[in-house]
Amino acid sequence: MKTTIKEAKNHIGQEVTIGAWLHNKRSSGKIAFLQLRDGTGFMQGVVVKSEVDEDTFATAKNITQESSLYVTGTITEDNRSDLGYEMQVKSIDIIQEAHDYPITPKNHGTEFLMDHRHLWLRSKKQHAVMKIRNEIIRATYEFFHETGFVKIDPPILTASAPEGTSELFHTKYFDEDAFLSQSGQLYLEAAAMAYGKVFSFGPTFRAEKSKTRRHLIEFWMIEGEMAFYEHADSLEVQEQYVTHVVQSVLKNCELELKILDRDTSKLEKVKTPFPRITYDDAIEYLKEQGFDDIEWGEDFGAPHETAIANHYDLPVFITNYPTKIKPFYMQPNPENEDTVLCADLIAPEGYGEIIGGSERINDLDLLEERIEEHQLDRESYNYYLDLRRYGSVPHSGFGLGLERTVAWISGVEHVRETAPFPRLLNRLYP
Ligand code: 4AD
Ligand code: MG
């Protein structure tokens, strides 16, 4: 019977065949241990010389790394392994013999691994990270669908810039100029006026010349937009969503977190409500912590965010940033008009901002004023202004960066390991 490594747990004591690749092996004169992988997981195959024919043992001893195989044998329990079972191999059919696989078990430099990303994805660590990414995606759809959101897919080719004009990828749209989407927000606002609560999940492009462990040129963003929600209501959705995602990974990716050596005690603490601190208080706190250089009105850098995050066990919302360092569409804070009704959610353990969100301006005159101040091309925002002409309501929304969230939950240092084929400054290959 044909099965997979994952499904083999339902076949203890039975003889099965699994299509697999040889990940690694160890052998002595009498026994060979094959580390097999098949996409669903990693499993040990044990080949005992005295129990197989001569050819099979010779094959087992000589198979090369990443050769593709059909392996047949009996599944037996094995409490020493993370998986809980292994295969007593009876026969091996080689499908294709691989020679000189570039990624050997020794250590390789990051650039080398990135050049071989198409093969690096096969490694145990990368496999675990992608499985966690997959679980976060699954839990995202589950959360939004269970809480009454409608999925809306905003366009990727756009004529307007939601997050400022300096980080746009230009392209030609026949005779017109177009930009790759930086955020679906403006279109989601239109959709929220049609469907109430909406979300999107799609690729986002930022032509930002940042080379940090948190920046990708292309990343995936989950955005929520809710009609009749004020900013405080939106924060509640955000903390519930993030909690749901973390708890789902803890529940469904136990093995992957173990492979990654993730300290799960920190993730277990993630429960609503998350702490909130205003930008003003954050500035005070940073000054107390010895950041003498930071002045009111400046944006926070990674060290500032980390210092604030370290003060808490949970993700923390920094609220009410100065108007002048945020995009044009944010609703002024009625208690201090120099600030806006917004929040960034900062992940624990130095992973930085994972969500940006705000209440949106719903007054037509004010929005027109802001579009002018920001020197945006009014024509291309006409549809956006229509939303304030025809039944404008208070509304709020947010965007969560998938890769930064994967990095935090998996505990990997750099976002480049959280996207299957990351687009980075100076990297478009493979
Ligand atoms: O804070 P940002 O720029 O917010 C927006 O785009 C809003 N329009 C979202 C909304 O309100 N609907 O981006 C949101 C999140 C960030 O918090 C971060 O997690 C992620 O997107 N992000 C990046 N991730 C990887 N690489 C980059 N260069 C990123 N830029 C933003
Ligand atoms: Mg932001």
UniProtKB/TrEMBL annotation:
<comment type="similarity">
    <text>Belongs to the class-II aminoacyl-tRNA synthetase family.</text>
</comment>
<dbReference type="InterPro" id="IPR045864">
    <property type="entry name" value="aa-tRNA-synth_II/BPL/LPL"/>
</dbReference>
<dbReference type="GO" id="GO:0016740">
    <property type="term" value="F:transferase activity"/>
</dbReference>
<dbReference type="InterPro" id="IPR004364">
    <property type="entry name" value="Aa-tRNA-synt_II"/>
</dbReference>
<dbReference type="InterPro" id="IPR002312">
    <property type="entry name" value="Asp/Asn-tRNA-synth_IIb"/>
</dbReference>
<dbReference type="Pfam" id="PF01336">
    <property type="entry name" value="tRNA_anti-codon"/>
</dbReference>
<protein>
    <recommendedName>
        <fullName>Asparagine--tRNA ligase</fullName>
        <ecNumber>6.1.1.22</ecNumber>
    </recommendedName>
</protein>
<keyword id="KW-0436">Ligase</keyword>
<keyword id="KW-0963">Cytoplasm</keyword>
<keyword id="KW-0067">ATP-binding</keyword>
<dbReference type="GO" id="GO:0140096">
    <property type="term" value="F:catalytic activity, acting on a protein"/>
</dbReference>
<dbReference type="Pfam" id="PF00152">
    <property type="entry name" value="tRNA-synt_2"/>
</dbReference>
<dbReference type="InterPro" id="IPR006195">
    <property type="entry name" value="aa-tRNA-synth_II"/>
</dbReference>
<dbReference type="GO" id="GO:0005737">
    <property type="term" value="C:cytoplasm"/>
</dbReference>
<dbReference type="GO" id="GO:0006421">
    <property type="term" value="P:asparaginyl-tRNA aminoacylation"/>
</dbReference>
<comment type="subunit">
    <text>Homodimer.</text>
</comment>
<dbReference type="InterPro" id="IPR004365">
    <property type="entry name" value="NA-bd_OB_tRNA"/>
</dbReference>
<feature type="domain" description="Aminoacyl-transfer RNA synthetases class-II family profile">
    <location>
        <begin position="130"/>
        <end position="430"/>
    </location>
</feature>
<dbReference type="InterPro" id="IPR004522">
    <property type="entry name" value="Asn-tRNA-ligase"/>
</dbReference>
<dbReference type="GO" id="GO:0004816">
    <property type="term" value="F:asparagine-tRNA ligase activity"/>
</dbReference>
<keyword id="KW-0547">Nucleotide-binding</keyword>
<dbReference type="GO" id="GO:0005524">
    <property type="term" value="F:ATP binding"/>
</dbReference>
<keyword id="KW-0648">Protein biosynthesis</keyword>
<dbReference type="GO" id="GO:0003676">
    <property type="term" value="F:nucleic acid binding"/>
</dbReference>
<dbReference type="InterPro" id="IPR012340">
    <property type="entry name" value="NA-bd_OB-fold"/>
</dbReference>
<keyword id="KW-0030">Aminoacyl-tRNA synthetase</keyword>
